[in-house]
Input
Amino acid sequence: MTVSVDPTLFRYVDLLHESRHIEQARRTALAGQGLSTRTVAWLERGAYEYDLRLGSRFGFSDEYMNWLNKRVSDYWTPSLRTKLRLSERTRKKFEGIWR
Ligand SMILES: [Zn+2]
Output
């Protein structure tokens, strides 16, 4: 996996977010899973939730926490929520990978 960054825009907090994606990719490979468009949305949700956990722990600003919550909402669509609630197979597929 390669992570490309624009050094003029990239912040340390972005590196933390990307580090979660690297961990997710490692877990995905270990589980023998593939990546799809739908998977990417789940992984983004997981990475932004990771950022929120860090924010709670280290006191990120309310403005940034609100932005992170919005990003989770953007990725955690009603169809994905329904899929997770109704499909045990999907839950098992993503358990241990996305968070
Ligand atoms: Zn991301």
About this structure: The chain has five helices and no strands.
